[in-house]
Every structure is written in structure tokens, then in C-alpha cells.
């Protein structure tokens, strides 16, 4: 604009305002968050805690895990105090800034009321001039200039008009700008240093930090597990579809998190050359001579030996192997969860025909068994009573089993107080009190299920191909509710197939028995969403993945094929798979089927590609929402003196088919069970009508002997025939004649058309 002048605020006063505001925004929430508060110690809570030697040792381990906690607290306090001191100093500095024309009032400067006459103004001006004139001993040049401007603004006509119009007797002033930077930054002699600093920060330091963070983060999955470790899990699970428990433990010990080349936190000592071989000699069935890579590598053998010693509760050198044990054991829960996820993903790939062999349900369950074993430091075949403090296998458990034949914690909790005290009479009153405190805080889960077809006209009727929703209700109580109550029925535990058949040590035979082609594993045909009812398209909030489809084979032929495959030698697996493939092609083409059902020439096709895309979009949206919101991981603290960290109670729940040894739903990880929680598990109903029996399982990842299962019986009805006069299913007359043959062999062929052809 013409006539205007622009000036730059070279004093840098604006910087102090910016720094004051920025510092206040940082200091206030930081002080509220970090300032230490004196926690009131709950006397009742301290009394409820276990005081056994192992728990006391664990507390000392947790305390020693933060050796600089006091120093860290002191430094935080010091930084907060210095920050507030700087804030007060800046506030004082800003209050001293005096911009002359910011609030120019001539009457205030002359110390006169606004109603003063001209004579009073002149008289006061003369008196103040004698005092403030620079030539006088009491003079002040700045104050005298302000006095003169005030006098002119009240006596001179031009100055008076300028004051009334612009607020300044000198007229309109130049516009002044300021930046929130200190003045030395814009000084010419410092320009080279300032540019160098900017280049160092924004062109060297910042890209380097971002690059280091990126290249480190891309090596890990969402659960902070190395991607190379996940890839190794996929390889071994695919190689061993029926994985025994000790095999799963070997693979867990071979995780690359325990290899120094992949993890810089791993410590390799010279003493390991003596201590590890000595430890191996104490451990039976370690299989240290295995030739598979990386199971034969030294880091894997060392981790395996430490895990075996942990499960056998063998004391280790506190300065060397004990530190390694604490680090390895702390990593195991995350690695086991990754193993469970890998098995489930391989099951999904197997159903999609992308991998040749389907992992059995025993594989994923054996992986789950590792978690409570590691948390409690106890082998799975040991008595669950050993999870209680002060109890030993040689003295107390032998006497308990001999007198009352007590096998689990629930039976022990149902004893009357005098009976339990009599069984543990070798313990002191203090030790017995610790045992009962820990037993009373153990979880007692009320496990119930409800089955329905959501959004269908009749939610209680399950039709072929419908999406079945099983609502699992978990109500957690303390075990102390059972004290002295012998009438409470015992919870139904999970009966593993290995236990029923006596297990087995021959892994190759087990692998050959489980390496069944995908086309044989199930008695029901391949499923399509939405075929059996209106509720087939809706996804549950808690279900992460869509239920997997099964192979398209008739029930009795699949059962016969599975039993034949289990009786074959491992070298004949390829031949069995070829026969099964031929059998599948015959069954799908309609030439030969189990029930000799000829296909109808006028079968109908339902194009549900749009519905499939909508389903996938909905699932992706739900998964994204769950990842963004996150799940609570606070439930109840686990009594685990052999685990060197605080652990919360988590659970797995899933649905499986014991007959075909297959998984129907993804294992849902329940991490927030405080009092009550409901989980929805979804799967596709069998394609063929009939009565089916599935199993809903609940497994603990923290305690042994807490697993439960319930049978789910489905009476699958025939799917209703869709209306033929709907324009969506009208076939065009211009379609080629040979399309009918494709319809007959399609997975969308309805059961009604087959029945009509049979009749």
C-alpha cells in the first residue's frame, strides 16, 4: 500500500511469547502425568498376596529389572522443576516488554483527569518538565519524550486530530512484524552457522533416525515377533502337520529371537561351553542330536535345554543361565501366540487349496499347551496341584493321591477345611494359609454356549450352508466359591486324542497319519456364503476371520478315505492323494457319487460375486476397526512364581470337529475376562442335511488343568429352494447349451435339484 512502511521486529520479542506458550503446553500435562504420587499401600491386598519363597524371589527379580528407577525418578523431578523455573522466568521477561504506543493515554501520562482544563494541563506539563528534563539530575529522556507527546496531543490541533484518529499524536505508524525466533538467528554474521545447523538436523539427523526406525520395524510383525521367525514356523508346521508337544517345544526354542545374529540382546558367554553340556546331561529326551536346521544350531540347543530345565524346575546359575532363562521365558508367550496364528493361517490356506496338507487340530492345541507350561514352569503330564505353593511331588502329592485320589484343583477346593488341613498336615499354618490363598484366587469359569442363525426368519433352525453363530459366554469366579462345596459338578475338561490313544513317540508315523489330502478331511462339501439363510452375510464384531469352507466330499466316503490314509505307510501318501483327487473329480462331476444322485438338467446358478465382495469389505472394515481400537489386556493377575514378569489371565476359545480333526473357527484370544464376556464364533454349516457333532473348546494360556469343552450338536436341515421367478436367477436364452454341464458340476448346485433327479 502507498504511504505505508513495514518494519521487522529485530528485537526477537515474539520469540519469548512463542516459547512461553509452547513450554506451558508441554509442562502442564507432563507434570500431571510424571509427577510421582504417593501410593497408599492396601494392607488387605498385601495380605492376599502369596508369601511363598518363589513369589518373594520373583518380586526381587522384578525390582532388580529396573536398577535405575530411583535415579530416573530424580531426573524426572529435576527436569520438571527446571522447566517450571524457566516458565516463570519467561513470564517475568514478557511482562517487562513495554511497547510505547500500545496503550497511549495523555491524561494518564500527565496524571490528570480527563476533565482537566487547558490551564491545568499547561501547569502540570511545566512542573513535570522540570523534573523529567534530561538536563536535570532527576531527568529521564524516555519519560520526557512521552510527556511531550502527551502535551502535544492535548494542545496542538494537528497532534490532537492524529491522536483521536490513529491513537498516536505522530499520525499512522509503520506496520511492524515479528517472528517467533530469537534475534541472533537472523543476524547476518550467524547465517552460515544457522544454515549448517538446519542442514545437519533436517538433511542428516532426521532422515537417519527415520531410516533406522523403519529398517528395524519392518523386521517385526504386529506382535513384535521377527518375520523370519514366523516364516520358520510356517515351514515346520507345513512340514509336520501332526505336531507332537515336544516337537512344538523344539520349534519354539529355535525361534530367531534367541539367536545373537538376529537379536543383539542375546548374550553369549565363554562359560556356556561348560554349563550348557552339563545341563544337557541332566535332561532326558532333549534330542540334541537332531540334524534339522535351525534345530541343530547351538543357540537352539541352548534355548531348548533352558526351557526343559525351566519345565523341570531345575535351578540354574544365577549369574549366567538363570538370566538367559528369564529372558527366554519372557519372550515365549508372544512367540506361542504367533505359532497359534501361523497354524490357523495354514489351515485357511489348506481350505483354499494353496497348501497340500491340512494341519490337524492336535497341532494347534499342542502349541496352546506350551503357554501354561511355560507360565507355570511345569510339564503338561504333571499334576495341576503343583501350581500351588509349597507342594512337592514326592511328599504332599503322593499322600493326597493315596488318601483321597484328588487329581485336579477343583476336587481339592471342594474338600472341607478340616480335610484339606489334614491332607497338608506336614505344612505349617503359614504355608497352609498361602496354599489356600492362592487356590482361592484361581479362576473358575462358567462356560456356556448358544447357537443361532442371526437375521434368519427362524434363528433356531440351521439350514445347509448357513452361517452359524455360536455365542460363548464366559463368567469368571474365584475358586474360593467351591471351598467345602462337594455338590458342585466337576467341569468337563478337554480330552485330547493323544491321551485317548496313548500318544506315541514315532513322529514319522504320526506325520504320515495326519498328512491327508485336503479333499478328504471333511464330511461336508465346499461351502458358499449365504446359501442357507438370510443370516449368511453378517459378520460378528468379535470374529476376526470368516469361517473356512470344507472339502466337497460325501460323508461316508471321506471317513473311509481318512481311515485308509491313516493305515498307509508314509511313502504311499502321494498315491493316496492321487486316488483322492480322482475320487473328488468323480464326485464333483456327477458321474459317480456316494448316493448315486443324477444331476438335474435344469439346475440353477446363483451369481453371488457381489455378495462375496461385500462380505470381504465388511470383514476388512471390522478387522481394521478392531486393530485401531485395540483390545484390553487387563484381566486378573496370574500366580506364576516361575515366570519372571507379571502375567494376566488370557484364554483361547474355538470350535473344532474331532471326527475329521479339523478347525472350524479361528482361535479367539480372550484378553479382558474380568467378570463376564461374550464372544461370537462363526462358521459355515455343513452342506448336506444331517446331525453333526462339533466341539467348542476353552483353553487357558496361564494355568494347567483349567481347559473345558462342550459338545455342539447341529441338526442341519435342507436349505429352502429359492424362488425361480425372481429376475436375478433368470437364465438368458442366448447362453450356450454346454453351460448346463458346467452348472451340474458347480459348487452352487442345490440339494433340491439333486433330490428331484433322484426321484
TrEMBL record:
<dbReference type="InterPro" id="IPR001623">
    <property type="entry name" value="DnaJ_domain"/>
</dbReference>
<feature type="compositionally biased region" description="Basic residues">
    <location>
        <begin position="526"/>
        <end position="547"/>
    </location>
</feature>
<dbReference type="InterPro" id="IPR014756">
    <property type="entry name" value="Ig_E-set"/>
</dbReference>
<dbReference type="InterPro" id="IPR036869">
    <property type="entry name" value="J_dom_sf"/>
</dbReference>
<dbReference type="Pfam" id="PF02889">
    <property type="entry name" value="Sec63"/>
</dbReference>
<dbReference type="InterPro" id="IPR035892">
    <property type="entry name" value="C2_domain_sf"/>
</dbReference>
<dbReference type="GO" id="GO:0031207">
    <property type="term" value="C:Sec62/Sec63 complex"/>
</dbReference>
<keyword id="KW-0812">Transmembrane</keyword>
<keyword id="KW-0143">Chaperone</keyword>
<feature type="compositionally biased region" description="Acidic residues">
    <location>
        <begin position="574"/>
        <end position="594"/>
    </location>
</feature>
<feature type="transmembrane region" description="Helical">
    <location>
        <begin position="74"/>
        <end position="94"/>
    </location>
</feature>
<feature type="domain" description="J">
    <location>
        <begin position="105"/>
        <end position="167"/>
    </location>
</feature>
<keyword id="KW-0653">Protein transport</keyword>
<dbReference type="GO" id="GO:0006614">
    <property type="term" value="P:SRP-dependent cotranslational protein targeting to membrane"/>
</dbReference>
<feature type="compositionally biased region" description="Acidic residues">
    <location>
        <begin position="496"/>
        <end position="509"/>
    </location>
</feature>
<dbReference type="Pfam" id="PF00226">
    <property type="entry name" value="DnaJ"/>
</dbReference>
<feature type="compositionally biased region" description="Polar residues">
    <location>
        <begin position="553"/>
        <end position="566"/>
    </location>
</feature>
<keyword id="KW-0256">Endoplasmic reticulum</keyword>
<feature type="region of interest" description="Disordered">
    <location>
        <begin position="714"/>
        <end position="759"/>
    </location>
</feature>
<feature type="transmembrane region" description="Helical">
    <location>
        <begin position="192"/>
        <end position="215"/>
    </location>
</feature>
<feature type="transmembrane region" description="Helical">
    <location>
        <begin position="15"/>
        <end position="35"/>
    </location>
</feature>
<dbReference type="InterPro" id="IPR004179">
    <property type="entry name" value="Sec63-dom"/>
</dbReference>
<dbReference type="GO" id="GO:0006620">
    <property type="term" value="P:post-translational protein targeting to endoplasmic reticulum membrane"/>
</dbReference>
<feature type="compositionally biased region" description="Basic and acidic residues">
    <location>
        <begin position="736"/>
        <end position="745"/>
    </location>
</feature>
<dbReference type="GO" id="GO:0008320">
    <property type="term" value="F:protein transmembrane transporter activity"/>
</dbReference>
<keyword id="KW-0472">Membrane</keyword>
<keyword id="KW-0813">Transport</keyword>
<protein>
    <submittedName>
        <fullName>(Mediterranean fruit fly) hypothetical protein</fullName>
    </submittedName>
</protein>
<keyword id="KW-1133">Transmembrane helix</keyword>
<feature type="region of interest" description="Disordered">
    <location>
        <begin position="491"/>
        <end position="612"/>
    </location>
</feature>
<dbReference type="GO" id="GO:0003723">
    <property type="term" value="F:RNA binding"/>
</dbReference>
<dbReference type="InterPro" id="IPR018253">
    <property type="entry name" value="DnaJ_domain_CS"/>
</dbReference>
Amino acid at each position: 500500500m502507498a504511504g505505508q512502511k513495514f518494519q521487522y521486529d529485530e528485537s526477537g520479542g515474539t520469540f519469548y511469547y512463542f516459547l512461553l506458550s509452547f513450554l506451558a503446553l508441554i509442562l502442564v500435562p507432563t507434570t500431571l502425568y510424571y509427577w510421582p504420587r504417593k501410593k497408599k499401600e492396601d494392607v488387605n491386598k498385601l495380605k492376599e498376596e502369596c508369601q511363598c519363597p518363589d513369589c518373594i524371589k520373583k518380586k526381587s527379580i522384578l525390582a532388580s529389572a529396573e536398577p535405575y528407577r530411583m535415579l530416573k525418578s530424580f531426573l524426572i523431578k529435576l527436569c520438571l522443576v527446571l522447566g517450571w523455573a524457566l516458565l516463570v522466568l519467561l513470564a517475568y521477561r514478557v511482562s517487562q516488554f513495554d511497547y510505547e504506543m500500545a496503550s497511549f493515554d495523555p491524561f494518564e501520562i500527565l496524571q490528570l483527569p480527563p476533565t482537566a482544563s487547558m490551564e491545568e494541563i499547561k501547569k502540570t506539563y511545566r512542573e513535570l518538565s522540570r523534573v523529567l528534563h534530561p538536563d536535570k539530575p532527576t531527568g529521564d529522556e524516555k519519560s520526557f519524550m512521552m510527556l511531550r507527546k502527551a502535551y502535544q496531543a492535548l494542545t496542538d490541533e494537528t497532534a490532537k486530530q492524529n491522536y483521536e484518529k490513529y491513537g498516536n499524536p505522530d499520525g499512522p505508524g509503520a506496520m511492524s512484524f515479528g517472528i517467533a525466533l530469537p534475534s541472533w538467528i537472523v543476524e547476518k554474521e550467524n547465517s552460515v552457522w544457522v544454515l549448517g545447523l538446519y542442514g545437519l538436523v533436517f538433511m542428516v539427523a532426521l532422515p537417519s533416525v527415520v531410516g533406522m526406525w523403519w529398517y528395524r520395524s519392518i523386521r517385526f510383525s504386529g506382535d513384535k515377533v521377527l518375520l523370519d521367525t514366523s516364516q520358520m514356523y510356517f515351514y515346520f508346521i507345513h512340514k509336520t502337520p501332526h505336531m507332537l508337544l515336544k516337537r512344538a517345544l523344539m520349534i519354539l526354542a529355535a525361534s530367531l529371537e534367541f539367536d545373537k545374529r538376529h537379536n543383539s540382546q542375546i548374550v553369549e558367554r565363554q562359560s556356556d561351553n561348560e554349563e550348557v553340556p552339563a545341563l544337557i546331561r541332566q535332561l532326558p529326551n532333549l534330542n540334541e542330536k537332531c540334524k534339522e536346521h535351525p534345530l541343530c544350531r547351538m543357540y537352539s540347543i541352548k534355548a531348548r535345554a533352558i526351557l526343559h530345565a525351566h519345565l523341570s524346575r531345575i535351578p540354574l546359575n544365577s549369574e549366567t543361565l538363570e538370566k538367559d532363562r528369564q529372558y527366554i521365558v519372557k519372550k515365549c508367550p508372544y512367540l506361542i501366540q504367533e505359532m497359534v496364528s501361523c497354524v490357523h493361517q495354514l489351515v485357511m490356506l489348506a481350505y483354499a487349496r494353496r497348501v497340500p496338507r491340512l494341519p490337524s487340530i492336535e497341532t494347534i492345541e499342542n502349541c496352546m499347551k506350551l503357554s501354561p507350561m511355560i507360565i507355570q514352569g511345569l510339564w503338561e503330564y504333571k499334576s495341576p496341584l503343583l501350581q500351588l505353593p509349597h507342594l512337592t511331588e514326592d511328599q504332599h502329592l503322593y499322600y493326597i493321591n493315596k488318601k483321597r485320589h484328588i487329581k485336579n484343583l477343583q476336587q481339592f477346593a471342594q474338600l472341607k477345611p478340616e480335610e484339606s488341613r489334614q491332607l497338608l498336615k506336614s505344612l505349617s499354618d503359614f504355608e497352609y494359609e498361602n496354599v489356600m490363598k492362592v487356590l482361592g484366587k484361581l479362576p473358575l469359569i462358567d462356560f456356556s454356549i448358544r447357537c443361532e442363525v442371526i437375521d434368519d426368519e427362524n434363528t433356531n433352525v440351521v439350514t445347509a450352508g448357513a452361517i452359524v453363530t455360536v455365542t460363548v459366554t464366559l463368567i469368571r469366579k474365584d475358586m474360593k466359591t467351591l471351598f467345602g462345596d462337594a455338590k458342585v459338578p466337576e467341569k468337563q475338561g478337554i480330552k485330547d486324542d493323544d491321551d485317548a490313544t496313548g500318544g506315541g513317540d514315532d513322529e514319522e508315523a504320526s506325520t504320515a497319519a495326519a498328512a491327508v489330502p485336503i479333499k478328504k478331511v471333511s464330511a461336508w462339501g465346499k461351502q458358499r456364503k449365504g446359501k442357507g439363510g438370510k443370516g449368511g452375510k453378517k459378520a460378528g464384531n468379535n470374529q476376526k476371520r470368516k469361517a473356512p469352507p470344507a472339502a466337497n466330499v460325501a460323508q461316508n466316503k471321506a471317513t473311509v478315505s481318512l481311515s485308509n490314509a491313516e493305515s498307509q505307510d508314509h511313502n504311499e501318501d502321494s498315491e493316496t492323494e492321487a486316488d483322492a483327487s480322482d475320487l473328488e473329480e468323480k464326485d464333483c462331476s456327477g458321474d459317480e457319487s456316494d448316493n448315486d444322485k443324477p444331476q438335474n438338467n435344469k439346475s440353477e446358478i446363483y451369481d453371488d460375486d457381489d455378495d462375496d465382495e461385500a462380505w470381504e469389505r465388511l470383514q476388512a472394515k471390522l478387522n481394521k476397526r478392531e486393530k485401531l481400537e485395540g483390545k484390553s489386556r487387563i484381566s486378573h493377575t496370574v500366580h506364576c512364581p516361575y515366570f519372571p514378569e507379571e502375567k494376566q489371565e488370557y484364554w483361547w476359545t474355538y470350535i473344532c470337529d474331532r471326527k475329521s480333526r479339523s478347525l472350524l473357527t479361528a482361535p479367539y484370544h480372550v484378553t479382558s475376562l474380568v467378570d463376564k464376556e461374550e464372544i461370537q464364533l462363526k462358521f459355515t454349516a455343513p452342506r448336506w442335511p444331517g446331525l453333526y457333532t462339533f466341539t467348542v473348546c476353552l483353553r487357558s494360556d496361564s494355568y494347567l488343568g483349567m481347559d473345558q469343552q462342550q459338545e455342539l450338536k447341529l441338526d442341519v436341515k435342507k436349505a429352502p429352494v429359492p424362488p425361480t421367478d425372481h429376475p436375478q436367477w433368470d437364465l438368458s436364452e442366448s447362453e450356450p447349451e454346454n453351460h448346463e454341464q458346467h452348472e451340474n458340476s458347480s459348487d452352487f448346485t442345490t440339494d433340491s435339484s439333486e433330490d428331484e433327479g433322484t426321484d
